[in-house]
Amino acid sequence: MVTRSLTAEVSVGSILPPLTVRFTRADLVRYAGASTDFNPIHYSERFAAAVGLPGVIAHGMLTMATALRVVTDWVGDPTQVRSYFVRFTKPVVVPDDDHGVAVMFSGTVTALDGTVATISLDAVCGDQKVLGAARAEVELQPAPAPTGAGTDGRVG
Amino acid sequence: MAISEQHAGRTYPPTAPYEVSAAKISEFATAIGDDNRAYTGAEAIAPPTFVAVISSAAWQAMFDDPELELALRRIVHGDQRFTYVRPLRVGDRVTAALTIDKVRPRGSADIISSSVEVVDERGEVVCVASSTFFHSRESST
Hints:
heterodimer; A: alpha+beta; Thiol Ester Dehydrase, Chain A; six-stranded antiparallel β-sheet; 3 helices; 6 strands; elongated; B: alpha+beta; five-stranded antiparallel β-sheet; 16% helix
């Protein structure tokens, strides 16, 4: 699998291609089954209201997983992810309709240490940031050796 | 006795071995809408946050600990960190063991820091999943 190389195009401040994803109730049911997280706040309006939530909310881990797609789509090989952190700052309320709710994910390179890039991530729903201090560290391929005439200084 | 700072350091036995399957990886990748080719086929790896599937069984051991008097409806997941040594692959058999690292009271809640070590059959760490949970104390209403 191809891994992004640490070329001159990658620097602190580089912006990764953003991603907008809509979450519907069907997505929450699917994630509940796949993850085995069956907390009823993710499917029952009645239960969500009883614990003081504004409605059925997406699994924080689903938002976290989706945000990382910005990183893995960009880096190519997901095995290059070294660490990943998010703070769950606001719930993503998912209405009971066919359209769901849109969350916009974006990422920026905020540090480079050798071949390890730190990507800071944002996830915005409406006008609220739903993840805080989100960041992933990924190992990039070393920059490819320069090619072409005159660049090979080796003897013999 | 409800959860308190004294529970820092408490550990739970490892979960029963979990075998990572291609079918479960595929199901999880579909659920997060991720079509990365690394998650398909007999040689598939699991998406990085798949570790949550395994660590949730270890969280359950803490949530179910009668001494801590935790209630799921009063728990909020505050933050999550994954530190990877290597990816999970089809055929891996792993266990997960939780440690309560720290408990701090704040207002009407307790902030629980925990870490789950996911270990393979050779005893080598695959990933550490560190979580902060906020647990509200029972209100008088």
